[in-house]
Description:
Number of domains: 1
CATH class: Alpha Beta
Structural class: alpha/beta
Order of helices and strands: EHEHEEHEHEEEHEHEH
Number of strands: 10
Number of helices: 7
Amino acid sequence: MELIVADDAEAAAREVAERLAALAGGGGAVALSGGSTPRRAYELAAELEPDWSRVDVWLVDERCVPADDVRSNLRLVTESLVARTHNAPRVHPVRTELAPIDAAARYEEQFAGAALEFVLLGLGADGHTASLFPNAPSLDETERLVVAAKPGLEPWVDRVTMTIPALSAARAVVFLAVGPGKADAARRAFAEPPSPAVPASLVRSAPGGAVVVLDRAAAAELQRSG
């Protein structure tokens, strides 16, 4: 595992943005997370590389809400990345108008065979990543690539999420977490033995481990333990 500790949240976002821009320049498939943390990384990535025409964007997970809902991960990725590019990527949305189990099955059909070059994951204060929540049944999935998931925290809406087998098949898995509220989870996810109580500890790229990008606040407990 490669650990990168940036001075602050902006520097952490730029570190990830540079990696995303490099992928866009070469082309390939990427799976992106929603939430507030990666927004700045997406904005910077679009500035660094405005041509994303050779990229396929998949969603790591999605909340089962309309595409224009403020809770939609598709909306976040569209506003912060896609709309800022000169040549947009091919974006693969989840059919959130369907029942969650049907939306997951449809997304899995579309995703099957895709070779992910890069996955960007976040880290919840409870240790979750994607919509893989602590001790959830989805953590035991070994064959399905996409499943429906119940929420483990607010917003209390059903989810569709990629599974550990799908995420771990990517050539590069990158985590981004910032702020003091993520320090305990970062220690448990990246400095302690893997555990279903901390789903982020279970996701590593089979080809290459993981790159973990934190700011100093999020890395505080890792640095003390090290």
